[in-house]
Every structure is written in C-alpha cells, then in structure tokens.
Specification:
elongated; 142 residues; 3 helices; alpha+beta
Length: 142
C-alpha cells in the first residue's frame, strides 16, 4: 500500500533528522551536509510533482546538475535535531531552475539559507537543453 502524497504547492517542506553521521568532530552538522539536505528536498519535491529523476534519465535523457550555489550558515544544527528544509522556486528559465532553501530547526530557528541553480542538460552530451514541457507546465501550475 502506498502513502498518498500531499498536494503539491509552490513551497515544499522536507523534514530531516540530524544523524551522528551528519556531524563533524565538534558535534555540529558538517557544512557540506546542508547541501545534501537541500539536494534531498529538491529530489523529493520533483517526486511529489510526479517526476522521478531515474525515469527522466532513462526516458528523456535529461539530468539536472547543480550549476551554482550560494549558502549562508547562520546557526549550527546538532545531532538529533529535527530540521525542516523549506524549498521554493524563485526563477524558472528555459534550461534552468533556481531554488531558495531555508533550513529551520523545529523550534523555528533558521540555521542556513541557500540559493541553488540547477541546469537541465542532455545526459549524453552534458549540453544545456530545454526543461521538458511537462515539468515546465507543472512548475508554472504551482
């Protein structure tokens, strides 16, 4: 039995529990792991709106690599913290999507803010290509 997905919205929230493996020797989340949390949120958002990245690769030969990242680290997350990754699209181009991510602890404290641009590329040549029409249409619908 599958769990029904929530109704897609313009903002997506992905809950994360901080595991020991996410932390550094100081007991706080290692800075690069915030990028992993953002990546997972984007993948789950894409899944929620009906698109699986492995199927996009197999059927349409497209990938969405990260082109640009800007991150502000504000407060540390620690082992066992419950955090939420809030993601929203701030720009949609013909071949790119810009996301804003806020990583917020369950108590409401914003820990990290990021802006990530992904590009749509042909899986064989790695050259830019238009975002498939069904994805463009679904993003615009949101």
């Amino acid at each position: 039995m599958s769990t029904p997905l929530p109704t897609p919205t313009a903002e997506f929230l992905w809950p994360v529990r901080v595991y020991y493996e996410d932390t550094d020797a100081g007991g706080v989340v290692y800075y690069a792991n915030y990028l992993k949390f953002m990546e997972r949120a984007r993948t789950e958002w894409l899944r929620q709106i009906g698109f699986e990245q492995d199927q996009l690769l197999a059927q349409q030969r497209v990938l969405f690599p990260v082109r640009r990242v800007e991150v502000d680290y504000l407060k540390p997350a620690r082992f066992n913290d419950e955090i939420n990754v809030h993601s929203r699209i701030t720009a949609l181009g013909a071949v790119s999507i810009e996301f804003e991510h806020d990583i917020v602890r369950a108590d409401g404290t914003t820990l990290c803010r990021g802006r990530v641009t992904v590009a749509c590329v042909d899986a064989d040549s790695f050259r830019p290509r238009p975002i498939p029409d069904p994805i463009q249409a679904e993003i615009k619908r949101l």
